[in-house]
Structures are given as structure tokens and as C-alpha cells.
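User: Please fill in residues for this 327-position structure.
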């Protein structure tokens, strides 16, 4: 079925969670052959994926990237900027993702659907695959580690103290010091605080100038993020992903957010141990956190991996329809 879209446009979806989801959609110039849903990372938004969506459009892939709750132009009464929700934030974020998938499937009936999650979006993608993985043709979890070790447990306790002292709706300095501030300091010759994301100075500058990027999450959102990681971390949780769903893990060897890619490798190993039968792993040597916004040749390696993964799985049967929570 030919796409009804303009090459790129923005619209709003009313999610069952009560959120008005800002969705950015890019359609191919000819008949679409597949749909890609992008789940963006923390403190950014879906419009940042315009360049890769345009490149995928040339291959016939329609891309949808929405702004998560608390991000970008998405609005919800219980989710102002920097907050997922007053309660059940993780469940609502994941259900919002499914609302976008349902819209995409109405726009492009019968086409294979893939999910790409970057960083925090990778954690969301894993949770989504556990609940709604049935029918997907592939899931890409990029630049994300799912380890919930003693540091995360210590951080969870520290967040409880911060919440008790300051409340839920203030920026979490504890979360910032343990994550983005530490990752920024790891780049010895940094020019900006965003250099840990990419070697490309233009991309770092664009990120720094964007008022919808680079903010510190509230204590409430930080707690939800740790909950998301903790719920994804166990063998039991990972075993809930349909075992026939093709998975793709990618990271950069200079990404401080994933211990220079080692956490991505560990995630791929744990997915295999949990029963996933098709797990691909790519570590882009030299790349930092945002592999799709890197300099060459790192970006080209990531883009090629994405394109080839989708092309390999266009014609195969989608994952089994089992879903843990099909609300």
C-alpha cells in the first residue's frame, strides 16, 4: 500500500494513558516496505532522528519517532517536562509506544514492524519486547546496558533520600552526578559537556543549543529509569521476550555510558542465555554514545548495520504473538 504521508510531518496521537504524543513521521517517496519505530533516549526527542529517517526512506522504510512522556512536545496532565508520570510511569511510557505502533500499523497495514531503541530508549525497547514483542519483525537495542549491580542499588537508595529531603519534582543532582556528569568528565579533551555523545563538534553544539535536550531528570523520572533497568535486568524478565524475535545490540567502544561497550556485549550474552535464538552484536570501534550522530566511519558502520538488519528480516515471519501484558 502506498504511503499517505508527506515526506516528513508531525502529528499528535492520543494515547490510552492520557498522553498527547508528539509523533514525527517520515515516509518513503515510493511504496513502503517496512516500518521502523524509534524510541529515543533520555533528555532528547524524536525529531533528532530526521537524518537517519530520511536515509531509511530511500530504502522504502517508513519511520515513526515519538517524544516520550516528559520529553519534547508530548504532553500529559501527570507528566510535565522531566517526569514520566505521577505513578506507573514505566508502564505508561511503554503503553504509549504501543499506541504509536498501532497507528503505524493502521497507516501501513501488513508491513513488517521493527523497533529501534537508543540508550534509555533501548531499555524501553526491551520492556516493550517483553510486553508487546509478538508480531514484531525485529528489535534493535542500541547503546544501552541493563546491568543492575551494587552501584544501581546504592543509587536507588540515594534517590530515596533525595526524594525525602527535596521531593519528587526537583532535578536529581544524585542522578546527574552518577550519569551524565561522570560521562562528560570521562572525555579528557572535551570542548563541551556533550562531547561524550559524539566526536562530531557540530552534533555536540546542536545538542547543547537545543532547549529540549540535555536537561536533568526529576527525582521521580530518575526513580522510574532505575525501575525500568531493574525490571529488565533479570534472567526471568529477559526470558519473556519471544525467543524467535531477532534482536540486535550495538554499542561504541568509547561510550562511557555502557562502560565502553562492555555492557552492550554483556546484554547480548544475557539475552542468549535467556533463550533468545537470534541475537546480533556489533561494537563500533572508536564510537561514543550516539552512534547515529557520530563522525565517519563510525556513523556509516552503525547505519549499515541498521539497514542490513532490517533487510535481512523483511521477508521472515514476525515473532510469535505471545505477549506478557497485552493491554
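Assistant: Residues filled in for all 327 positions:
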Amino acid at each position: 500500500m502506498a504511503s499517505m504521508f508527506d515526506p516528513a510531518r508531525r502529528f499528535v496521537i492520543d494515547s490510552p494513558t492520557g498522553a498527547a504524543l508528539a509523533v514525527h513521521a517520515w515516509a518513503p517517496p515510493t511504496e513502503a516496505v517496512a516500518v521502523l519505530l524509534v524510541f529515543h533516549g533520555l533528555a532528547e526527542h524524536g525529531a533528532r532522528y530526521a537524518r537517519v529517517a530520511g536515509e531509511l526512506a530511500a530504502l522504502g522504510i517508513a519511520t515513526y519517532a515519538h517524544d516520550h512522556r516528559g520529553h519534547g512536545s508530548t504532553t500529559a496532565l501527570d507528566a510535565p517536562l522531566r517526569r514520566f508520570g505521577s505513578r506507573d510511569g514505566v508502564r505508561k511510557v511503554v503503553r504509549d509506544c504501543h499506541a504509536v505502533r498501532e497507528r503505524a500499523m493502521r497507516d501501513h497495514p501488513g508491513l513488517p514492524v521493527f523497533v529501534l531503541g537508543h540508550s534509555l530508549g533501548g531499555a524501553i525497547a526491551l520492556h516493550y519486547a517483553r510486553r508487546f514483542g509478538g508480531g514484531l519483525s525485529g528489535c534493535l537495542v542500541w547503546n544501552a546496558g541493563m546491568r543492575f549491580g551494587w552501584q544501581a542499588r546504592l543509587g536507588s537508595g540515594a534517590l530515596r533520600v533525595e526524594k525525602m529531603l527535596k521531593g519528587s519534582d526537583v532535578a536529581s543532582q544524585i542522578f546527574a552526578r552518577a550519569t551524565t556528569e561522570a560521562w562528560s568528565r570521562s572525555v579528557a579533551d572535551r570542548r563541551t559537556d556533550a562531547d561524550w555523545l559524539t566526536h562530531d563538534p557540530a552534533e555536540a553544539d546542536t545538542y547543547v543549543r537545543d532547549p529540549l535536550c540535555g536537561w536533568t531528570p526529576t527525582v521521580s523520572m530518575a526513580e522510574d529509569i532505575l525501575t525500568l533497568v531493574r525490571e529488565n535486568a533479570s534472567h526471568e524478565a529477559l526470558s519473556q521476550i519471544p525467543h524467535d524475535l531477532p534482536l540486535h545490540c550495538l554499542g561504541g567502544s568509547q561510550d562511557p555510558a555502557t562502560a565502553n561497550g562492555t555492557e552492550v556485549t554483556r546484554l547480548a550474552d544475557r539475552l542468549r542465555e535467556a533463550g533468545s535464538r537470534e541475537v546480533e552484536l556489533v561494537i563500533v570501534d572508536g564510537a561514543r554514545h550516539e552512534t547515529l550522530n557520530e563522525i565517519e566511519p563510525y556513523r556509516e558502520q552503525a547505519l549499515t548495520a541498521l539497514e542490513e538488519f532490517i533487510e535481512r528480516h523483511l521477508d521472515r515471519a514476525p515473532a510469535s504473538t505471545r505477549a506478557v501484558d497485552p493491554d
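For context: The two ends are 28 Å apart (CA to CA).
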